[in-house]
């Protein structure tokens, strides 16, 4: 006998569908973000007065390196005029010289870009930064544990705390958009971005990501105030399970798993008001995600009624022809991506992409209706952020880098710690003679991970006032010796490089101590430079422990 409750569930499922097919047969799609008449009126007003070249420029995002002078520490007026004045580019990302700068320096740079954008095209620039675990691209911002650590707390409050602090401090630096949170289901431990996400579970991922999204954006996605920013949830989707385990390589996912598990955290964030999303760099089941009309337009824009903006990841339109070979050249790749649903192309090096878009629209390869839809989505985001009224803004931001944010981060770090085993060694009495060894013992870089001041996480260059594990133990205990045994070697793009010649010295130092604290693991890395072939602890570090 089937209980009546089953039929209630079945009836609800039959009447609650919001797919495009049902909508075309007389149903309706409830928008993920309720439309605001004033916002839409402003969008239409601006759109009506734009030239084709200005529309094309709004669809392109350029790396700040294209605007740097020879010092890589200041803006070049001629490059500003070329990128914004000539090409009408609508968005800039990243940090000068690929290194974090202070709130003050970042704000001054963005203000200058906004002045030029308003003078030249009358439309504010949209500036975005990768803030992954706090305001991590500001030298004086507040850092939180990485998402994988916050996930270990199983506590939504820490996701909310990090989201609020990240948005508040980023906005204080005149930046209204963060490429965060990351919500890729990390189900292959070889994947070098696993530590950026909330882990492998769809429920945990969805709960933490939705909480952080709401904390970053605030309660009203149509009107983002000056203490919040827009999110870019990423990377839509299936990025965290590449078949090879390598970054930006193909994934093969059963359709039901893709829909029920991998889509879930994104869907919940879209429905919670996420204003933008960044697209998976690779492919799913043989289709490059940047050219996947079914996922980008069908699942998100049509079935969810979502009116936000989809942005590519780094130079990924180029990958459609250079790597995936589904397009013959740049022109065909741009056509393919925009027609699939891409609204903004992160083309970091060359604004000439704007000319390609103009040519494609004039030839009819990109319909004017699709161009205008994409431009509306970009303009809508800028209106929702209040950038037309306040391209730059004033504010004291008295909580910037505050003890409150530091205390929240410390509490999250404590709650995320996992003690695997203790057979009476802990707690230490304080009288022991301690040896500290291992390559991670005296490294802030290893403690903070990637996206910490720099892309690969060179934290030791920026935060000498904070403690490594060695320094913390030396402050706490009276007799602490240090002999690393194995040390990381500074080789560009090779985080695995090690020098093991110090192992005999570490073994000799261990003979006269009561306790040995061995700090082994990984150096920091991010994205493709972190690709690995072996999940084992390095042979050098295992040899250090054995000896």
Percent of residues in beta strands: 5-15%
The tally of beta strands, per DSSP, is 15
Helix/strand class: alpha/beta
Distance between the termini: 67 Å
The percentage helix is 40-55%
Major β-sheet profile: 8 strands, parallel
Low-confidence stretches: 1-27
Number of helices: 20
Mean pLDDT: 94
The dominant shape is globular
User: Rounded to an integer, what's the Rg over CA atoms?
Assistant: 25 Å
How are strands sequenced across the largest beta sheet?
A: 9-6-5-4-3-2-1-10
Task: Please tag this protein with its features.
9% strand; single chain; 15 strands; 20 helices; disordered N terminus; 40% helix; 547 residues
In words, what does this structure look like?
The chain has helices spanning 4-15, 20-24, 37-48, 52-58, 77-86, 103-120, 147-153, 156-172, 202-217, 255-271, 293-302, 316-322, 330-340, 353-363, 368-384, 403-416, 444-448, 469-476, 503-510, 539-546; strands spanning 60-63, 91-93, 126-129, 177-178, 230-236, 276-279, 283-284, 287-288, 309-311, 345-346, 433-437, 479-482, 487-488, 498-499, 515-518. The chain is α/β, with parallel strands linked by helices and 547 residues long. The strands form four sheets. It has an eight-stranded parallel beta sheet with strand order 9-6-5-4-3-2-1-10. A three-stranded parallel beta sheet has the order 12-11-15, sandwiched between helices. A two-stranded antiparallel ribbon has the order 7-8. The longest helix has 18 residues, at 103-120. The model is unreliable at 1-27 (pLDDT under 50).
